[in-house]
Each structure stands twice: as structure tokens, then as C-alpha cells.
Amino acid sequence: MNMILSGKVALVTGASGGIGRAVAIALANNGAKVALNYLSSKEATEAAVAEIMQAGGEAAAFQADVTKLDQIEALVAAVEETFGDTIDILINNAGHLVQRVSNEEMTDEHYTKVMDVNFKSAVFMSKAVLPGMKAKQGGRIINMTSIAAHNGGGPGATIYAASKAALMTFTKGLAKDVAGHGINVNAVSPGFIVDTAFHSTFTPEAAQKATIQGIPLGRGGIPDDVAGSVLFLASNLSSYLTGETIEINGGMFMR
Prior knowledge:
The protein is α/β, with parallel strands linked by helices. It has one domain: NAD(P)-binding Rossmann-like Domain (Rossmann fold, 3-Layer(aba) Sandwich). It is built from nine helices and seven strands, in the order βαβαβαβαβααβαααβ. It has a seven-stranded parallel beta sheet with strand order 3-2-1-4-5-6-7, with helices on both faces. α4 links the parallel β4 and β5 (139-144). α1 (18-29) crosses α9 (223-234).
């Protein structure tokens, strides 16, 4: 086990599987005390906690709907009570396409669901941890955006793409707001990541194969590819990096 995050308390939202789970394990393997948040997948989250603890790490599972402000406040309070310290690292990973919906079929309910889980959750989770970070004059906030923020997403994903673009811009604005307190705010932007519920649910197998054929590195990404970049941003290795978005897409999109 590496210890570059020793003594740090990290909270990962949406950590029951996929990218969130991989991020939580990577942080724990590098010395952080990790809170894994979930909405409904209790057994999967507890299995991830057990894996971390068996490897000698420290972790706990916390249920909360991070689109609800009262539950966000309760989540942060519970994490701080459990680990006896304020949160040093926040990973705003919770997100969802919900379903593919064309603009002609758009409803207020769908719009609100997508914007709340992808954007509102990150805004108010960040708000909830900032007092503790400011008191320490240090912290890391890492937002999970998407290649969709650049290209508008696939069919029926317009609002999802817009929510991720909003999150990318929010990252820049928040980074400037809190830089004077030693808090770094960055984002990661995954491209086509396999072994996730997202593509298993929303992307047909033929479309997945076609996408991979167009990736310069010749393969789809895996959750650990994203976790490595998050670990970098959570550590002091990235101390002079803020307001930035790291693209993790095997060359699908280059800036």
C-alpha cells in the first residue's frame, strides 16, 4: 500500500460500482480513509468496503441521495463523525443519463432528474465540504464530467451532455473562488469506459464495438484508467493544477 494520501479523509459519491468504486479503492490503497456513498446499491457498496478493509485500508459505506440538500448535509456530518475529521478530498462522481430522450420528448421531470444528479449534486456537495477545507486551508474537489460535454453526447443525451458541460464550467469558477484557501478544484472527463453500468444499460453492443474501432489507442477505457487520474489530482503531485479538466479517452478527443 502506498501512503501518499495518509491521514486524508475522502468522500466518493456514487461509489457502489464502476468508476466510483475504482476511485474509492485507489484512494484507500494510497492511505486515505474513504467514505463510499451510494443511493440504493447497499450490498455492492459494502462489498467494496470489505475489499478495502481486507487489503488493510479504512473505509465505510454511507447511504444518501446527493440530489437532496438535507441528505447532503447529513452525509457530510456522518462522514466527519465516523472518521473524526473534516473531509479533505471530495470526488463528485454521482451521475446518470437516466434514459435516452430526444428534445421533442423532453419533460420537465426528465430534465430535472438529469440536471440534479449530474450538476446540482456536485454544486451542493462542494458547498457542504468547503467550510472544513477552508478551516484547514487545503483540500481537493474533483468533478466527474464527460467527453459528452465536448461533443454533445450520443442520441437522446442532450441534457446529460449539457449537465456535464455545466459541471466543467463550474469547476473553473469554483477553482478561482477557493484558490486563496489552498483548495484545488479540477475535473476528469472520461470517454468510452467499458465495464460500467452506463454503457451496459444505454449503449448497444454493436455501437460499443464501433466506438472502440475509432479510438486511437485501440481499446475502451476501464474504471482504473479514470481512477489513476483522480488519484493524481487528489494528491500533492497536482498541487499547482486547478480549474483544469483531464481528458481520459484514449485519443477520441484531443484539445
